[in-house]
Amino acid sequence: MTGSSCCPADRSAGTIAVAARLLVAAAVPMATMSAAACAGPTSGLTDYQHKAANSAEAMASEVQTALLTGQLVLDRRVQQDYAATTASNIDDDASSVQQTFDSRQPPDSAAADALRDRLDTAMTDATSAISDMRIAIRRGSDSDIRAAVRSLMKALKLLQRLQSVA
Amino acid sequence: MSRLLSITLGVLTAIGGFLDIGELVTGSLTGARFGLSLAWVVVLGVVAIMLYAEMSARIAAVTGRAVFDVVRERLGPRAGLANLTASFLVNVITLAAEIGGVALALQLASDVSYLLWVPLVAVLVWVVLWRLPYGAMEKVYGLLGLALLVFVVALVKLHPDWGGLWHQASHPRVPTGEGHPTWWYYAIALFGAAITPYEVFFFSSGAVEEGWSRKELIDARANVVVGFPLGGALTIALMAIAAVVLQPRGIQVDHLSQAGLPVAVAVGKVGVAVMLVGFFAATFGAAMEVALSSGYTIAQYFGWSWGKLMRPVQAPRFYTVCLLSLVVATGLILTTIDPVKLTEYVVVLSAVAFPLTYFPILIVANDRAYLGDAANPRWMNALATVMLVVILAASLAAIPLMIATKAGL
Predict the structure, then answer these.
(1) Fewest CB within 10 A of the end CB: N or C in chain B?
(2) pTM for the predicted model, two decimal places
């Protein structure tokens, strides 16, 4: 196919300016995306509680995914490679959720410190149980998967309680 | 018989073109988070893409020229360049997301890191673009894309509360615990995934490549009227299975693997295998369409020889642009940027560029100097104008909502 014969060679500097403006317009959302990916500052106890609840919710989502994947493996309803990839993904995500929460500076209050301790413990338990699930799935060990399911259930209960702190 | 075959192939192409990594990610993500309360957005997106794809096909069939070529001539080089720049940027980022999607599908099937698959996928896309005939390309990925009908099978096998799902879809409201800005942000993401610009460029350029004339307009309309709604139905099925299996557990979809878990629950290993074939076909087909669209838009703007039916030696600049787009997109995804996050962003960013793509199509489809008696009828103009207002609103709201919600958090 051949397009029409209009030659672009004589395009004025104005067209370049249009392109430049569009590139700048594209840069704005890119910068927004970068900014959106950062953990924001914490301004007070209420804000800290809100962010703690969000972190607990995000970790609970990883735990639930691990539980569902483990159950599917036990029921022979999913391929080993699929389950292993899923488990590795959520293992990485769980570590990231914990790291993000740990990097937040809590406000200077005993309540905030207590909340941080409780959530940190719950998250450590959850992360450890998710890693156990990943290892068990990759080893193809049903008994280890069942053990990981029990640990995950305990961690989930703690996380669900912490979701309501906000 | 040949017409039926042509329509069937077109329908398959439309399904393959509509369902890509954007729909797979945003469909599952929104279903898991908001249930079917955003299903109306998919319906709106299907209507919009049907309208504008039909206009593009009609422009191509009547003038024998692709949309971009006519837009540049009708609106002048400056408006054409604005359209080109926005569309090309969105195309390249979309291509990166699609390549990442293919690699993720292969990772799920093999447990080998997607980053190792990315270069191989890029080479495979290029080889297929270079060697595989147009018709064969359409048939192969269109047919394989039908594997995603497994979402419908899964939904039926889950024995959901159909009344509850219908109520969610027909009485949309923001679920408890979610904010209105976040809900609207994901509405734009779903809308953006449905009407990604490459779809119309590919559709119209394909029409020119296949030599459509007024006689083939019936086929084109059949493809549009059946194909895109089928793609939309599959997206809603994906949302529904996520709403049934993932939402009650509070699972937030951050990975393609999570999107497939409801199929494992409902259908088991065979379903997962079929779904992975569908994931591969949908994303690979889309990657080819986007790569070709990049070549189409640039070549048509500058008046170069173009076409998949041409040998590379006959259209060297067209093939070079396709190759460079592929190289840049591959480089982007190899930076280890998360393909799912990239997809989430690109469907929203593409919304910003929508008016630059769709407004010129509406102008040209109304120009009797080009289309004669095939110009838009009044009812279509009314509907297309309403859609353009929606498109404009989505475009204006996309960035403020992205900032306000921290990209949907």
Answers:
(1) N
(2) 0.88
